[in-house]
Amino acid sequence: MKLTLFSGVFLGTTTTMLSSSWFIAWLGLEINMMAIIPLMMNPISQRSLESSAKYFISQAVASSTIILASSWNWFISGQWIISHTSDNFSITLISLALLLKLGLAPLHFWLPEVLQGVNLQMGLIISTWQKLAPLTLLIQISSNTGLKPILIFISVFSVLIGGFGGLNQTQLRKLLAYSSISHLGWIVGVIFLSPSLSWLTTLVYLTITYSTFVILIELNSTKISDLMFSWSKTNWSHSKCILILLSLGGLPPFTGFFLKLSISNELLSNSLISMTILLMLGSLISLFFYLRLSFITSLLLTPTNLLIKGSWKTHHHSNLLNNLLFLFSIFLLPLSPLMLSLSHISL
Amino acid sequence: MLLRFVTCSCRHACLGVSWMRSSPWRTAIHTQKVACRTFSNRTFRPMKALSANMALLKEEAMDKLLGPDGIPLDIYLLRQTNVIWKFDDENSLKKWEVSTDKEIGGKSEASISLGKSGRTLLFQGSLNTEPARDGKVRYSGYSTLRSKRVKGSFGKSKHYDWSPFNVLHLRVRGDGRPLMVFIIVENFFSLHDDDLYNYFIYTRGGPYWQDVKIPFSKFFLSSRGRIQDAQSAMWLDKVNGLGITMGDQVSGPFKFEIDFIGIAIDPAHSEHFAYELYGKAK
């Protein structure tokens, strides 16, 4: 049964990413949503049911808005093709619906609550795989000039909300939700200038977020106080956790810095100076709480102060994919010129 | 009915309505005190409420910037214990409400007051297990002490975040009768409105205080008083309140004194949930 549902999630996203018609794209989004709802409810508890219900409501509203707006576009222009969407009202409505699907401010209220109610594995899927389909559609319609002011506003607002929302959070899943809002704000800020750069930065963001979730699953940590005691569990995962948090915060020389550097370069070369300043200020707030989290993980409690029962150190079977993605999420910054040239991006 | 000028409590001359009852046997004129409906009263109360709520919102925003629950994060993470409820004065009693089976026609009684020292809460009364004779109620005899919901600005519900802690610590003194302590957590569906997480307190009786420490993993789920087959661990990040029920099916007086209710971390306790998480029989 789980295999069928995971296939549905995969099928829905790939259908949307490969389609050129609004109807097929909407179909893919619906298949994806219907398949992931039962997966989110496992294991059944009040909070997982609550998260599934909230996720369903937000995604269903967004999907129905998309089909309404695309139907209106067909009525006006006779076109179902995504790249030929010309009606401004339809494009605005579709972009707002896609922003709701992505969980960007000011339509972000569902994301922290939903992530908090599901387990870390489902949180990983919601934060990474589920972003691909809406981002694909957003990139395809981003060339419309009417969207530029909306995207700039959403981008800055998301980064600021992501920064202030994650401040003083004690639950790691909520913190990663606000991190997702902040990072997607950066990506959406460059989407209308350079779609290929937004794709590249999306891949970088997904790699770092995937590695973060994998490490939290290894440490079985859902709150900050769990990270405080993680040194006694597995030393290697504990060290990885510190590095990945710094990378997520965008600190050089880690990979996360590439995301902010490349986007800032693109924005400055297009004379969007105030937007860049606001994005950087928002990121400084995020960096503050990532640094604090790294401090709490590494230095707050000394290893000699054994306040908890020691755990059995069992042999940990390492996964090649996870380790490779972890390396990419930490040490990819020196290869950034290569990545930019491979993506045909010139800064 | 007569329309005439009356003087209301705020000494404004208002146009009021009064009922005049007259009959061959009574000549008394019955007048009603008319509420003053001047412009200032109509707009003043909402403005007062708005300014009070804005002050609360500002306080919440400042607390959010300071740290979780308004406490700096490093202190929040390093603290081992936290007293949630203590009973220093009469105002602390206003955070609690008492209910008995009188709601369903029973005859139990209960009340709360400050203890002799003035620093404890005394929950006392008498249970009566005789059910109401309405043909519907079969069992009776309970008294409950429950904490009130904390509201934030604009009526927003506020929750306690007990997730860093794993033990409920109460310092109590009873009369030897067992009680049940329950925790109310936030729910989304109205189906779960009556869901509670329960555990027992066995009091020793006598003059000595007892420290009751119950790990949160021991609390089991019940709904409308019935223990659920599908159990799940309590989520401690959104706790709405706590309550204590006296309902041991024995008629007679009871007394239960509480010094404080708090939460603590027991580093030796690593259990997540104490009960079997099997699927329901089909």
What can you tell me about this protein's structure?
Chain B: GO terms for molecular function: unfolded protein binding. Chain B: Keywords: Chaperone, Mitochondrion. Chain B: InterPro entries: Galactose-bd-like_sf (IPR008979), NADH-UbQ_OxRdtase-assoc_prot30 (IPR013857), NDUFAF1 (IPR039131). Chain B: Its main location: mitochondrion. Chain B: Pfam families: CIA30. Chain A: It catalyses: a ubiquinone + NADH + 5 H(+)(in) = a ubiquinol + NAD(+) + 4 H(+)(out). The complex is a heterodimer of chains A (347) and B (282). Chain A is mainly alpha-helical and 347 residues long. Chain A folds into 2 domains: 1-102; 142-304 and 315-346, no CATH class. Chain A is 73% helix and 0% strand. Chain A has helices at 2-18, 22-40, 46-77, 88-102, 110-117, 120-127, 129-141, 148-166, 172-189, 195-219, 224-228, 235-248, 256-269, 273-298, 320-331, 336-342. In chain A, helix 1 (2-18) runs antiparallel to helix 2 (22-40), helix 1 (2-18) packs parallel to helix 7 and helix 10 (195-219) crosses helix 15 (320-331). Chain A starts with a helix and ends in a 5-residue tail after the last helix. Chain B has 282 residues and is mostly beta strands. Chain B has 2 domains: 2-64; 71-264, Jelly Rolls (Sandwich). Chain B has 3 helices and 15 strands. Chain B has helices at residues 39-66, 73-78, 90-93; strands at 2-7, 13-18, 81-86, 96-100, 109-114, 121-127, 143-147, 167-174, 178-185, 195-202, 210-215, 220-223, 226-227, 239-246, 252-264. Chain B has a 7-stranded antiparallel beta sheet, with no helix packed on it. In chain B, strands 3, 5, 6, 8, 11 and 15 form a 6-stranded antiparallel beta sheet that branches. Chain B is globular and about 55 Å long. Classes of the chains: A mainly alpha (347), B mainly beta (282). The A-B interface holds A 43-47, 49-50, 53-54, 116, 167-171, 223-225, 228, 292, 296, 300, 307-309 and B 64-68, 73-74, 76-78, 161, 163-164, 185, 187-189, 192, 195, 230, 232-233, 235, 237, 267-268, 270, 277.
